[in-house]
Model the fold of this input.
Amino acid sequence: MRLLTLGGHVGFDSLPDQLVSKSISQGFSFNILCVGETGIGKSTLMNTLFNTIFETEESGHYETCVRLRPRTYDLQESNVHLKLTIVDAVGFGDQINKDERPIVDYIDTQFENYLQEELKIQRSLFDYHDTRIHVCLYFITPTGHSLKSLDLVTMKKLDSKVNIIPIIAKADTISKSELHKFKNKIMSELDRNGVQIYQFPTDDEAVAEINAVMNAHLPFAVVGSTDEVKVGNKLVRARQYPWGVVQVENESHCDFVKLREMLIRVNMEDLREQTHSRHYELYRRHKLEEMGFQDTAAESKPISLQETYETRRKEFLCELQKKEEEMRQMFVNKVKETELELKEKEKELHERFETLKRTHQEEKRKVEEKRRQLEEEKLAFNRRKAAVEAMQAQALQATSQQPLRRDKDKKNSKGMITKSNVEPLKYGSWWQAIQCCCNCLVKNPTGQERFL
Ligand code: GTP
Ligand code: MG
Done:
């Protein structure tokens, strides 16, 4: 390429201005994620940072799980429009199940939404509301001891997905010397556990110096308040205590000004850029690799999207065929198994039927036998009945001749009626005995023999 000099003013030096005016008309979006335990001062700090009162509601300590609550506001400063989204991690640090998963999922979902928009045939990225998180303000509780394991685990999970700026909240509750030690402890713990926090960039000459100085002040110890207190003859934002006033914007009282300077006034664009070029790129790469896309094939040969698509399609069809074959085989095996089972069952049923048939025949035979016996008994009974009736007839006959033969009978009887201890039987008694006999025979055919 040759370097040429222009003969006069052409006008493309206005390109940066064109870019600026285009950006201004388009507006900006900035998304902040606030992670910290309930009541640590998240909302107060947001109000203090943007010098306004965002609508907010206090969270209780009894949330069943961590949930993300985004709220979007339209802000304007001079002629610049800012679509600001503040996302609160409600219930964080309160749960027994200290799970950072909902936060990670939320960040991933925003990346996924952007990726889906990018992959659309008809994209509208120009007016797309970008909800990707540009910065995570991680509120550390001012214990003066060390970081909680929850803080370390959460920051470790988030550091590859978002720019983390750790801040010590409610810094007015910790003494100056303790704060210094606490800051050092936090930084060494983060370092030891390999947690990557956001570093203010030092590659741009204009801001390199201030950013380098500010990097050494991390984590910022902040105080938030929207109350105005009269100090001297000036109204300043401060927290008033019985023993004195903590001024929010006084650098010897806290690092609020440093945070505002770094977050909003110097590095807002870098945070947006880092989100897109580092964190989103990482997400996109993993996602596309998961889908089977790659830039280079075997032996580092470049491969186009079309080629990758074709290869993947072929692989997919092969896999589909294999699965289909497997399914078919499985189906055949299943049918065979079922057939075998049914045969088994049929055999079993047949055997049962045969057994039942045998039992039935046996029982039928027994019933026949019983019937035969009963028939015989009936015949015997009828015979005996006839005999008794005959006896009855004889007895009747005898009764009609009784007056003549009473004395003779007494003498001719065979012992039974002539015994001295038995009363001589009268005709009435004979008749009763025979009747009794008959009754017994009728009622008790089997016992009659004994009776007779
Ligand atoms: P949730 O949204 O309910 O989780 O609470 P939060 O984290 O938004 O806390 P919020 O801003 O509502 O503040 C809770 C309490 O802490 C309020 O009483 C604030 O006045 C107080 N507070 C906020 N910032 C500070 C601070 O820097 N120092 C001190 N001492 N108190 C503060
Ligand atoms: Mg709040």
Q: What stands out?
A: Residues 338 and 344 are 10 Å apart (CA to CA). The longest helix spans residues 305-400. The longest strand covers residues 67-77. The pocket of magnesium ion (ligand 2) is lined by residues 42-43, 56, 88 (CB under 6 Å).
